[in-house]
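User:
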Amino acid sequence: MRRDMPSDPRDCRERARQCAGFADEADDPKLKATFRELARAWTDVVAEIERRSGARADLFGWHKCLRVEQYLVNAAEAEENFRQAANEDVRDLYYKAAVSWAELAKDVAELERSPGDCV
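Assistant: Predicted structure:
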């Protein structure tokens, strides 16, 4: 289920809750930490949406580009861990982590986008 824009904080809160739930499910400490970090990142997006209240002010400058880049790196790392995991349950959680990091990168990029950014 994808959205066109990350404008609804309720959806982002739900994603944060899902990631927190995956963290609780995970036995692997690395997976647990990954999903906790994802939950925090989705919560940060909620705060940013609510703080802006529809305003398009540039609050982060080039930092936002670095943040999106880091989320994409995290997605790639989770995908690599997915490929290497032997346990099917662990593979499933790494897949969910990779998808969530990629969606987070896309949503934050859309939220932060303004002409000339991240060129």
